Amino acid sequence: MRKLKSVLLLCFATAFSIAVNAQQAVTVSGSVTNSKSKEAVSSVSVTIKSTTLGTFTDDKGKFKITTTQKLPFTLVFASVGYADKEVVVSTNNQNVEVAIDTKFTFGQDVVVAASRVSEKILESPATIERMSAATIRNSPATSYYDVLTNQKGVDVNVSSLTFRTVTTRGFVSSGNLRFNQIMDGMDNQAPGLNFAVGGFVGVTDLDVESMELLGGASSALYGPGGMNGTLLVNSKSPFKYQGLSFQIKQGINHTKD
């Protein structure tokens, strides 16, 4: 008799705990779409706020969460390229239809100098000769590359009207393999030649904002190719320099006495 009572009591307790757990379980389902295109958005993170419980939307933008979290609670929808959105769930088996908005994040400009950090020229451990856009514009030279001939410690070999070879250490030749020419952070070497060919490949005079010349071994941070120096050419940003620009240069070939 006692065994029968124990078995009945155990069955009653088990049934009661199952019923209690069933009552506490909350199921929430729904879908996520783009607010503009109305298309389904997949791989959206759907989590319960202030917890680690959640799921992701499938390829059709649908999701389903079963939890024992007490009502009401808040669902947080998050995805790369979209703004976060919160929805309050107050009833069991609630169907949630969410439309999320796109969000654009703009990065910040990063300036890399010879010492790998942005700093003033006077505080730099290396000697830097800097030529601004005004210096290039007021120079009587035919191109911005010819402005380098007026800098100290610079030797320029003239191979043609547009081909200049620059060096700041050792003997100059028509092809300097140990001189780096970097434009907007990219190595400006001629394909197949493996050395910079001066102003023959690069931006025009109107597009140059500034030039920085690092002489000799002080440009070693830019690689072994800079043993004879490194020239950094910075072009103008289209967001900063807007509108139409033109340039006129004139000269005198010969005059009559």
Task: Describe the secondary-structure layout.
Blueprint: H1 2-24, E1 26-34, E2 45-48, E3 54-56, E4 62-67, E5 73-78, E6 85-89, E7 94-100, E8 128-132, H2 133-138, E9 155-158, E10 164-167, E11 180-183, E12 186-187, E13 208-215, E14 229-235
Give the key terms.
Ferric Hydroxamate Uptake Protein, Chain A, domain 1; Immunoglobulin-like; four-stranded antiparallel sheet; single chain
Which fold name fills CATH's third level, the topology of the largest domain? Ferric Hydroxamate Uptake Protein, Chain A, domain 1
Which radius of gyration do the C-alpha atoms yield? Answer: 34 Å
Mean pLDDT: 75
Ends distance: 139 Å
Report a brief summary of the structure.
With 257 residues, the chain is mostly beta strands.
Describe the structure in your own words:
This protein has 257 residues and is mainly beta. It folds into 2 domains: 26-100, Carboxypeptidase-like, regulatory domain (Immunoglobulin-like), CATH 2.60.40; 121-235, Beta Complex (Ferric Hydroxamate Uptake Protein, Chain A, domain 1). Helices cover 11% and strands 29% of the residues. It has 2 helices and 14 strands, in the order αββββββββαββββββ. The strands form 4 sheets. The protein has a 5-stranded mixed β-sheet. The longest helix is centred in the first third of the chain and has 23 residues, at 2-24.
